[in-house]
Design a protein that fits this description.
This protein is of the alpha+beta class. Helices cover about 30% and strands about 25% of the residues. It has a nine-stranded antiparallel β-sheet with strand order 5-6-7-8-19-14-11-10-17. Strand 6 and strand 7 (about 150-155) form a beta hairpin. Helix 8 (about 370-375) packs parallel to helix 10 (about 415-425), helix 9 (about 375-395) packs antiparallel against helix 10 (about 415-425) and helix 13 (about 470-495) packs antiparallel against helix 14. It is globular. The two termini are about 40 Å apart. InterPro entries: 6-hairpin_glycosidase_sf, GH-type_carb-bd, GH92_a_mannosidase_put, GH92_N, Glyco_hydro_92, PNGase. Pfam families: Glyco_hydro_92 (PF07971), Glyco_hydro_92N (PF17678). Monomer.
Length: about 725
């Protein structure tokens, strides 16, 4: 899929950026990170990842973050922003962060100078020329068309815009494409209610080429009446008309701005009904500045869960931006009254919990759910409960990739079983564990189990019969899911029978090992080998070889031991920027995420330490193209956070971390049951010389979550030179 060029101006220069930080941190920035003057929200630069790397189309697509610069609320329902896809249309009300194909982008709004006399049609012909003045957590400000200022902020379920027209202008028009989104839609309807308000609904268009089939309902209002208003449908333009519908339709409002140049616009949305959209708007609306301040404070509340001593360098900006990315999704889906539209198309009520959507589970099971469970176990538990509800409403199986109330079926494997097991292992336990295990087992044992029209485990019959599917990458995903189910059954329900059965099933990876090629390889149903390159989704056989994180010692022994494994890993990491078909490491894609820590299983942890630092320094930056790949709804953001803390959640269903060198001198993590303080990290020293846990020497590259969850201290001593004997006293776990 091609990446279309946008026209954002990357306004926030290093000078401006550090001037803001210096102002906030004028007192005590070198002190402990509990400094109350630190405003974490303005350390966030929402433009990071908005663009792709220069080069050919495929490369730019693969190395684009697909993040957005506009305003959103932590785990909120709305994202008020220019869209990555066709940004000339204006400011949309919903946009996933880091999803790498066209989607959503409903209700684009664009302020224009003067009156309009012809239809905006599909809104593709405008050229706003966004000159971004400020883009932080929860707030966005830009100049359009040279001298029209737009400021955006949000609540949980509403978007608010302040539009300021130039002094010389007498009239200003605002257009809203109620029948337009980032893709192609079929069904939309809008009605102008008063000279300052409108309401209606629109469908979701498509996602990655498949129908989305959701409906978004909306109620929009301005703070003052328009002089003129009307609608359009395709090329047909009708002043004073109050109704419109279908694709490429919308409403316009023209205001007298001769005396007052400022307009305030508010929009509430719901996926249930217009009435709920109105209630959401009325319950959450307020003055623009008040909403802005409240949202910034809410972001500060979330971001300060991890505090670092360094708040002036570019690494601080990157760290808090990636933490911010990890806290955007999943997205709130239940309305202020608790109602939400279920996977069965019926209205349901979220009783004593928030219902969420936007589940990119093939991506987020690897990093993000662990971070959320550590920092916000109640929210992570609600996310799990939302999955359980979705499964029951959609046919009995877990989904893989959910947009609104639709299972898209994107990606592969059974990632939701791993996600739930990871949530539980890292402290999010307030959900129905019996129900969760029942749904896991149904999807893993009953061919034909579906979520809506999508199979939970495609090719399950082959997997049950042969121990493998026709695609090696799917088989490896299933083995990780099986291992996660085994761990969840034991931890949550003390079920030894299920644990033993699925722990054994997890060893099916061995059936992919070809002793003649020394690689994991796809097989035909008769057992014969397929071509080496076949059967690997978004990666190559060299990426997926290391995707046995629960039994790396077994994999390494099968290959021939540590020396052979180190040589293979060294060759794999000669470059860090592979696309889907290149056979070196891909920093920007999920199947490779855990690979840098594999050296910890080869008695060469110094190589992990140097490599993780190299990836952070070479593949990430503060620029608008500063991500190595799609952020994928916080998966990459969470990877960056863990990598810089020196702790990585390596094994599915196991609460624990593989250790590398932290970047910052002091990191304080506010856990539900205590404070974890990590000290003596270093930007210049990549290697670990020694480590103490709560004052006692610690000589292992693995640490259990149970040893950290109540707080404590991890004190590193670091070195410029590789310390090859540290970390090998107690080997990290492998489950054979």
């Amino acid at each position: 899929m091609s990446l279309k060029k946008n026209n954002y101006t990357f306004k926030l220069s290093f000078i401006t950026y550090f001037s803001i930080i210096s102002l906030v941190c004028s007192v005590g920035c070198s002190e402990a990170p509990s400094n109350p003057q630190v405003n974490h929200a303005i350390l966030v630069n929402t433009q990071i990842g908005n663009k792709g790397k220069p080069g050919n189309t495929d490369k730019r697509y693969h190395e684009a973050g697909f993040t957005f610069p506009g305003a959103t609320y932590p785990f909120g329902m709305v994202q008020f922003t220019p869209t990555f896809f066709n940004p000339n249309k204006g400011f949309v009300i919903n946009q996933l962060s880091g999803a790498g194909c066209e989607h959503m982008g409903n209700l684009p709004l664009l302020p224009l100078k003067g009156e309009i006399s012809e239809s905006p049609d599909d809104m593709m012909h405008f050229d706003p020329g966004y000159d971004i003045q400020e883009s932080t957590a929860g707030f966005y400000k830009a100049t359009l068309f040279d001298d029209v200022t737009a400021e955006l902020t949000v609540t949980k379920r509403t978007g608010i815009a302040k539009i300021i027209y130039p002094d010389t202008l007498q009239k200003g028009t605002v257009i809203i494409g109620t029948g337009i989104n980032a893709t192609k839609m079929k069904d939309a309807s809008v009605k102008i209610i008063t000279p300052n308000s409108f309401e209606g609904y629109a469908d979701g268009g498509s996602f990655c080429g498949a129908d989305s089939n959701y409906k978004i309902y909306f109620v929009g209002k301005f703070k003052k009446d328009a002089q003129e208003y009307g609608t359009w449908e395709n090329k047909y333009f009708n002043k004073q008309n109050r109704k419109a519908g279908g694709a490429n339709s919308g409403v316009f409002f023209t205001f007298d701005v001769s005396d007052n140049k400022e307009l305030q616009y508010e929009i509430g949305v719901s996926y249930v009904s217009i009435e709920n959209a109105r209630e959401n708007l009325e319950s959450e609306k307020s003055d623009f500045e008040e909403v802005k301040e409240n949202t910034l404070q809410k972001w500060n509340e979330y971001l300060k869960k991890i505090e670092i001593n360094d708040t002036t360098s570019e690494h601080a900006g990157q760290f808090y931006t990636h933490l911010y990315h990890a806290l955007i999704h999943p997205s709130l889906f239940s309305d202020i009254n608790g109602e939400y539209i279920g996977a069965d198309g019926e209205v349901h009520y979220a009783n004593n919990f928030d219902f969420y959507t936007a589940f990119s589970n093939w991506d987020t099971y690897r990093t993000q759910i662990q971070l959320l469970s550590i920092l916000f176990p109640e929210k992570a538990s609600d996310i799990v409960t939302s999955h359980l509800e979705f499964a029951e409403q959609s046919g009995g199986g877990f989904p893989r990739w959910v947009l609104a109330n639709r299972e898209t079926g994107i990606m592969q494997g059974d990632p939701t079983s791993i996600l739930i097991a990871n949530a539980y292992a890292f402290g999010a336990t307030d959900f129905d564990t019996k129900k969760a295990l029942k749904i896991m087992l149904r999807g893993a044992e009953e061919p034909g189990t579906k979520s809506q029209k999508k199979l939970t485990r495609p090719q399950l019959s082959s997997y049950l019969e042969n121990g493998y599917t026709g695609n090696a990458s799917i088989t490896l995903e299933y083995t990780s899911s099986d291992f996660a189910i085994a761990q969840f059954a034991k931890q949550a329900l003390d079920d030894e029978v299920v644990r033993n059965k699925y722990k054994k099933r997890a060893q099916n990876w061995k059936k992919l090992y070809n002793p003649e090629t020394f690689w994991l390889q796809s097989r035909h149903a008769d057992g014969s080998w397929k071509d080496q390159e076949l059967g690997f989704r978004e990666g190559t056989y060299k990426d997926y070889f290391w995707m046995v994180p629960y039994n790396l010692s077994g994999l390494i022994d099968t290959l021939g031991g540590n020396e052979v494994a180190v040589e293979r890993l060294d060759n794999y990491f000669t470059q860090l920027d592979a696309d889907y078909d290149q056979t070196w490491f891909a920093a920007g894609n999920e199947p490779s995420f855990q690979a840098p820590w594999t050296f910890n299983w080869t008695e060469a942890p110094h190589k992990t330490q140097a490599l993780v630092r190299r990836i952070v320094q070479e593949q990430y930056s503060l620029k608008d193209n500063g991500l190595p790949g799609n952020d994928d709804l916080g998966a990459m953001g969470a990877w960056y956070v863990f990598a810089n803390m020196g702790l990585y959640p390596m094994i599915p269903g196991i609460g624990g971390f593989s250790i590398s060198t932290p970047l910052f001198e002091r990191i304080k993590i506010d856990l539900p049951d205590g404070e974890l303080v990590i000290t003596s990290g270093s930007k210049s020293h990549s290697y670990i010389e020694s480590l103490e846990l709560n004052g006692k020497k610690y000589n292992s590259t693995w640490i259990q979550w149970d040893e950290l969850k109540n707080g404590g201290t991890l004190e590193f001593e670091t070195s410029e030179q590789a310390i090859k004997d540290w970390g090998n006293e107690n080997p990290p776990p492998s489950f054979r």
